[in-house]
Design goal:
Blueprint lengths: L6 E2 L9 H15 L16 E4 L4 E4 L1 H10 L10 E4 L6 H9 L13 H11 L3 H4 L15 H4 L13 H13 L10
Parallel strand pairs: 1-3, 2-4
Antiparallel strand pairs: 2-3
Helix pairs in contact: 1-2
């Protein structure tokens, strides 16, 4: 389907920075090859966009459409990358679907295993920085003030060693300082 046949919701309350849009385009480009039916040279989406059949109004996926058109220069979207709904245009339900699709308060939370997973991805996958995955494990302490807000936090660093011997030496040195250390091998 031609992307120009889709209409962004004029009330869409979300925006995206240029940097985040570049990261989104990199993500689409990186993962497109793993989506079944990647044909005709079209970048495919790992998750569908949602479109109201009544007016072809985009309810979710505005930023992915921007990434496809503006950065990846694609003028079509694969039919399988669209989930169609039928709602009254401009209705409260249509607007609720738009907001609900991006509501962080009804999404899951990251588990303690995220850091190890991100480390393995960083080591094994090219383009890690472009995908901005490193920001998932980052804590912006500039917005925190006062010791009390930071009490109970667990602080971690990751050190990439150039050899097993270097890793062993560094581990012994850190443990001699009574630091809790964990070795990750990937």
């Amino acid at each position: 389907m031609k992307i120009t046949n889709l209409n962004p919701a004029p009330y869409n309350p979300r925006t995206i920075s240029d940097e985040a849009l570049r990261g989104l385009a990199a993500s689409i480009k990186q993962f497109s090859a793993s989506v079944e039916g990647n044909a005709n040279g079209l970048y495919r989406l790992a998750t569908t966009i949602t479109v109201n059949r009544n007016g072809n109004r985009i309810l979710s996926g505005h930023q992915r459409i921007r990434a496809l058109t503006e950065l990846l220069k694609q003028d079509q979207i694969h039919d399988d990358d669209i989930t169609w709904v039928e709602l009254e245009p401009d209705s409260a339900l249509e607007k609720a679907v738009n907001v609900e699709m991006n509501n962080p308060h009804i999404a899951g939370k990251w588990t303690d295993g995220l850091d190890e997973m991100l480390l393995a991805i960083q080591i094994d996958m090219p383009g890690y920085e472009e995908l901005r995955l490193d920001q998932l494990a980052s804590l912006d302490v500039s917005s925190l003030s006062g010791e009390s807000q930071m009490s109970g936090m667990e602080y971690r660093i990751v050190i990439l060693c150039d050899s097993e011997q270097h890793q062993t030496e560094l581990l012994e040195e850190l443990e001699s300082q009574s630091l809790s250390c964990k070795v990750l091998i990937s």
